[in-house]
Design a protein that fits this description.
By secondary structure, this protein is α/β, with parallel strands linked by helices. The chain is built from 28 helices and 32 strands.
């Protein structure tokens, strides 16, 4: 794999560093597939500053309640575009009592009232339904899930926090500077046994740490695309999220055309390809024939190795990985991977899972059945489960015998459910090692709780190698070791009747008289204060890890059952990373409550005295008091807005960071009224310090490049420093000034 150090041109399908003399660089930039789609959806008339409206939207049952509640509070009367609400995350209704199914009933009533599309529990995982029913060449889809990626079907899809979806529901636009575009130039063909997750992990491993495609569009082109099936492309595409790119798009061809024809939507196809001359801001050249069977070791998809290399150096590599993991776990519990290495050098695995939008596709599960046919998973520690991505897929796998092959080998065939991807399904036992064709292996994504002494290790692998391992009784095995042929799945026949009989499609047929069904756990968003001219925040958590994931900010798994109750869910904020955060944040919120009631708490008065001695005047009546956290690089992972809103409802007013891992997390902070400060030297303050930001509201609204800040330490000394907010739109600045997105809509 080659990552170019500079931009490249694609001229008549060939890579070159120079453009024809008659083509300007600006003209060449307009030659990408991405540019054409963005232009068609841009409302501003200015391609440097995009204001976009999407063709449809989608959410699952961790996020849609909060989005609809936000839009209701902002004046929404009906859905202005098709909005798909799936129920694939919290469909285990035993978790939390009735509250999961209460949310499902809320969504069905909202689909009737506002004209939405309701996909019942276990019918399909969010991204498979949208691929099958909503994608189309040249379209754009916005989803409140980070793996909203349908680029392999010619659809630019974006995963964002709920606030961005609420904006679309009230007729506003999605605003951002035009992103860069990176060419992913594919050549060659995959070797036998190598599957889509192997390609995906190789790409993530090469691009995540260096930020090569961060917040850019990955555009897949080149002769190698033609040799990949639609399922294979889809499985690679959904994993582009783990590179931290903003979106993705692929050239389309006869394979894409056949996909839409098979799914009964031939009109959704059109050819998409770059112009004769196209300029890209970067280029990744990948010869598919060089991709090996891969494994991404705990605790990130970018920790990718060829399985061959791991097996040859098992003890050394696993020791390095477990040492890094234990440093990240901060001594709360210890991961033990080296014990999985046997005296003969083989590596034992305890569990295998193939599931979700990346793993549970038709061709992946056909390959699993092919490998397991006539074999046994063994009756020891190792266990194997498969989850189909949709009921039409499930039905076809039943008809062609794949389900029988998997079950006959001792595997468990389950429902359409995203649980194994975020820690709510097939949680391994403490100390176990699980291999999964799912999207993430962050800490806790498998369901363990390090704060309570529980930890298991999760590695990502392709379905084929997981099946090969299962057929070998749990001994880690690459599919290339046992496969000397290509997998040829039986022809797929899509039965739309499965959806027609169960999915409620109310798009264009809103029923305003329909009452919403509120369960006892569904609560309105608490009111949030507008930003005052000055701001005082206390740093109540100081995280020095290189990256802080959204799952560490607000855990996934069973805690997500409370996502429709903002205050109750907030009790879990940072619970697995910093258990002292919630009480500390509440204590700061109490200080501001006392201030607004007319009483200045003693410790705040002491801070103001220290500021006065240093020459800073403070007006307590015009100075909000809030909490803040520092993290080096927060926000890698999920699009769930709760990673920001939970801090806000506890009184969070700001984050301080060296950088933000993803645009979507930074957007969540903005939409919930938390100032996303950037700081060059975080050593100037520490946990427990107060930070005073004089004139912050005025500096915000005048788009100041930087603004002053003053750290007040416990001993009364002060340290002035500078913070920045980075590039923002005028609307984003006003949202922060108003205190949150809901307030913004009320005032404007």
């Amino acid at each position: 794999m080659k990552l170019h150090d500079s931009g490249v041109y694609l001229v008549n399908g060939k890579l070159t560093e120079t453009a024809p003399a008659n083509v300007t660089p600006e003209q060449a930039r307009q030659g990408t597939i991405a540019y054409g789609i963005l232009k068609a959806h841009n409302q501003s008339g200015d391609m440097a500053n995009l204001r976009m409206k999407f063709d449809s939207m989608t959410s699952h049952d961790i996020t849609y309640v909060g989005i609809i509640q936000t839009a209701r509070a902002s004046g929404m009367e009906q859905f202005p575009l098709p909005y798909v609400m799936t129920n694939c995350h919290n469909s285990l209704c035993a978790v939390g009592g009735t509250i999961n199914e209460d949310d499902h009933q809320f969504a069905l009533s909202a689909a009737h009232k506002y004209g939405g599309i309701y996909v019942p529990p276990n019918m399909a995982v969010i991204h498979s339904y949208n691929r099958e029913m909503m994608s189309g060449c040249g379209r754009m889809i916005l989803g409140s899930d980070s793996h909203t990626r349908y680029g392999a079907l010619g659809t630019m899809a974006v995963g964002e926090g709920g606030g961005e979806l609420a904006k679309q529901l009230v007729g506003r636009t999605y605003d951002m500077a035009c992103p860069g575009v990176v060419c992913v130039y594919l050549t060659g063909r995959l070797n036998p046994g190598v599957g889509p997750h192997d390609v995906a992990l190789a790409l993530v491993g090469a691009t995540y740490a260096n930020g090569y495609v961060k917040n850019k569009v990955m555009e897949f082109v080149g002769p190698g695309v033609a040799g990949l099936s639609a399922d294979c492309r889809n499985s690679i595409d959904c994993m582009t999220t783990e590179t931290t790119c903003w979106s993705s798009i692929w050239q389309t061809d006869a394979v894409t055309e056949e996909y839409f024809a098979v799914h009964g939507r031939p009109e959704a196809y059109k050819e998409l390809k770059p112009a004769d001359v196209a300029y890209y801001d970067g280029c990744i050249e990948l010869d598919l024939s060089t991709v090996e069977c891969m494994i991404a070791l705990p605790m990130h998809p970018s920790y990718a190795y060829p399985i061959r290399e791991l097996k040859a150096n098992a003890t050394d590599i696993l020791h390095e990985i477990e040492t890094r993991a234990n440093e990240q776990l901060n001594g709360k519990v210890r991961m033990d991977l080296c014990s999985k290495v046997q005296p003969d050098g083989s590596i034992l695995v305890d569990q295998g899972i193939v599931a979700g939008c990346s793993g549970g596709t038709y061709e992946n599960l056909c390959a699993v059945a092919d490998i397991l046919r006539g074999k046994s998973c063994g009756n020891g520690v190792f266990k194997f489960s498969a989850y189909p991505d949709s009921m039409p897929t499930y039905l076809e796998l039943v008809k062609n015998g794949a389900v029988a092959d998997i079950v006959s080998a001792g595997g468990i065939f389950r429902e359409c459910f995203c649980g194994p991807c975020f820690g709510a399904g097939d949680t391994p036992a403490n100390g176990e090692f699980s291999i999964r064709h799912t999207t993430r292996n962050f800490p806790n994504r498998e369901g363990s709780k390090p704060g309570e002494g529980q930890i298991s290790g999760v590695a990502l692998m392709d379905a084929r190698s997981i099946a090969a391992t299962a057929a070998n009784g749990g001994v880690l095995t690459a599919a290339s070791e046992i496969c000397d042929h290509e997998f040829t799945a039986p022809a797929y026949h899509f039965d739309r009747g499965v959806y027609d009989k169960r999915v409620y499609d109310g798009w264009g047929h809103a029923e305003p008289e329909t009452p919403l069904k509120f369960g006892p756990n569904i609560k309105d968003w608490p009111e949030q204060p507008a930003l005052t001219n000055d701001l005082l925040v206390r740093v109540v958590s100081y995280i020095t890890d290189p990256v802080t994931t959204t799952d560490e900010l607000i855990p996934s798994g069973e805690t997500s059952s409370f996502r429709s109750n903002p205050l109750r869910l907030a009790e879990f904020t940072l619970s697995r990373k910093d258990p002292g955060y919630v009480p500390a944040a509440k204590a700061v919120k109490a200080l501001d409550a006392a201030r607004t009631a007319g009483t200045l708490p003693g410790e705040v008065a002491a801070v103001y005295r220290a500021l006065s001695v240093a020459g800073y005047a403070v007006n307590p009546e015009q100075t909000n008091i809030g909490s803040a956290i520092f993290a080096n690089k927060p926000g890698d992972g999920s699009a769930r807005e709760q990673a920001a809103s939970c801090q806000r409802v506890l009184g969070g007013a700001a984050n301080f960071a060296r950088e933000y891992a993803t645009k979507r997390y930074r957007s969540n902070c903005i939409n919930w009224g938390m100032l996303p400060f950037l700081v060059e030297d975080p050593a100037v303050f520490g946990k427990g310090d107060y930070i005073f930001l004089p004139g912050v509201c005025g500096a915000l609204l005048t788009a100041a490049d930087s603004m002053p800040a003053v750290a007040v330490h416990a001993d009364g000394t002060v340290t002035p420093f500078t913070v920045r907010l980075g590039v923002m739109t005028d609307a984003e600045r006003q949202i922060l000034a108003d205190g949150c997105l809901i307030n913004y809509y009320k005032h404007h």
